[in-house]
Write a structure and sequence with these properties.
The chain has 192 residues and is an alpha+beta fold. It is built from four helices and nine strands; from the N terminus they run E-H-E-E-H-E-E-H-E-H-E-E-E. Helix content is 30%, strand content 40%. The strands form two sheets. The chain has a five-stranded antiparallel sheet with strand order 2-6-5-4-7, with helices on both faces. Helix 2 packs across helix 3. It is globular, with a radius of gyration of 17 Å.
Length: 192
């Protein structure tokens, strides 16, 4: 059976992606060993599913559609720049999410529960609302990167806002030049 690498995501408007790319460009001035997320791939992950049989896509879509029906749109803001697990030993550089985060968490929980019923592993309490800008491959330049990120974060305030009106099922095909994303289904979050 054919396998597809899938995840649920909130896709972002191009204008907002350009703002994040601008931040990445400033940070790239630091000679750090970072694999940056390509501008066209910037998104908010709701739930990573991993390798899935292609024949299950309709069941996955139907389950999430039923669980998010009528949940309604919400607004998220992007601000701050941080690091996982922390600035002393950074591995991931991210932009923080605020605004109606409780509604984002509710969307995540509904998707998580519907996927758990289909046998997908639960992330439990590990949900963290953030947008990944890049991943550090080694500690080279990390200290300077943290310093520059803090300076940018101090100047930027709110980077942007997005009205979340849908959640997408995305296929990720891994290539030598990076992942290629294709939206397989879009589910609207309209109030009933």
């Amino acid at each position: 059976m054919q396998q597809k690498r899938l995840f649920w995501a909130i896709n972002l408007p191009d204008e907002l992606k350009r703002k994040f790319f601008g931040i990445q460009s400033w940070l790239r001035e630091v000679p750090a060993d970072v694999k940056w997320v390509e501008q066209h791939n910037l998104h908010l992950t709701v739930k990573f599913l991993g390798e899935v049989e292609a024949g299950l896509i309709d069941d996955i879509t139907r389950a999430v559609e039923e669980s998010v029906a009528g949940s309604g749109e919400f607004i998220l803001e992007f601000a701050d720049i941080g690091f996982f697990p922390g600035p002393q030993r950074p591995r991931v550089i991210w932009v923080g999410v605020r605004g109606e985060v409780q509604k984002f968490r509710l969307l995540h929980d509904r998707v998580e529960e519907s996927m758990a019923r289909l046998g997908f592993a639960s992330e439990g309490a590990r949900f963290s609302s953030h947008l990944t800008l890049g991943r550090l491959r080694s500690p080279r330049g990390a200290r300077e990167l943290v310093s520059k990120a803090r300076a940018i974060a101090g100047e930027s305030g709110v980077i942007g806002r997005v009205r979340v009106a849908a959640v997408d099922l995305v296929e990720s095909r891994l290539t030598r030049t990076g992942p290629l994303y294709s939206v397989l289904a879009t589910l609207k979050l309209l109030k009933v």
